Amino acid sequence: MIAILKQNTTPEQIENLTKWLEGRGLKVHLSIGEFHTILGLIGDTGLLDTELLEGLEIVESVKRISEPFKNANRKFHPDDTIVEVCGLKIGGSHFQIMAGPCSVESEAQILEIAKSVKASGASILRGGAFKPRTSPYDFQGLRADGIELLLEAKKQTGMPIVTEIMNANHLELFEHVDIIQVGARNMQNFELLKELGLSRKPVLLKRGLANTIQEWLMSAEYIIAGGNRNIILCERGIRTFETYTRNTLDLSAVPMLRELTHLPVVVDPSHASGVARLVKPMAMAAAAAGAHGLMIEVHNDPVNAMCDGAQSLTPEQFKEVAEKVNKIRGVL
Prior knowledge:
Layout: E1 2-5, H1 11-22, E2 27-32, E3 37-42, H2 50-54, E4 59-63, E5 83-85, E6 88-90, E7 96-100, H3 107-120, E8 124-126, H4 144-157, E9 161-165, E10 179-182, H5 190-197, E11 203-206, H6 213-225, E12 231-235, H7 253-260, E13 265-267, H8 269-273, H9 276-289, E14 293-297, H10 315-331
Parallel strand pairs: 7-8, 7-14, 8-9, 9-10, 10-11, 11-12, 12-13
Antiparallel strand pairs: 1-3, 1-4, 2-3, 5-6
């Protein structure tokens, strides 16, 4: 349930109403927008006298929300959430490109790629230190050493870094990581999400392999319920019956999410297609659909990459993609 307050309501009146609602066992989320102040009410609102609430002098209207995700709901928070990372903004009218290798392989590799993608228009460096792999015999990443190499790349380029966490026990290793990525396989690892909710560090939450948009937003709700509202959603394709691509990129999720939630959404065309030559058209389409950013895999030697070389762009190809995307955003 939400209570929309009248304009010119004083902070004292809001505080008194909030205390009154909390006294009835409800949690109250305050959202102060440009034109409206909204109180989001979470809990058993069935016991609340709606007519009494709506009859208060400072209340303009009261509406019930049927969706199970409350804090992530745009009705609770009409204005776009803008996530700030080292001075960069993601969300609203702000657009960022995250680029880098699927896996950090060596210091020379990550430094070369970081410098090239920054020169070509990327603002955030991505790279896998812990790698979830379908086969236990595949390369699993450099783990803690990989994070150290990413931090060295950040030191030399000034780019904030995003990398994936696999286990809540690893949180200490991510102390200096700027954005913690939750991969598709961990989207419903609720214990991990609860721990990330206790942090205030930005979280990039990828959509699960076969999860609905509502399930995805409920995972975001877990993080917000813990107090962390710095969430970036990432559409990375879903599993369908199609075999020509690795996954099926659900670009309809972008405008749908912009209706349903205030959280920013970025698109990963690399994991979605699994085919390097498809990354450019899918990245352009994502920008046209209204995404707040892109996450693109770039490798200086894709043929010999230890992970996902088939979907990785060369630095030269990435530069072309960034230029095309910026032209589309200029038109929009």
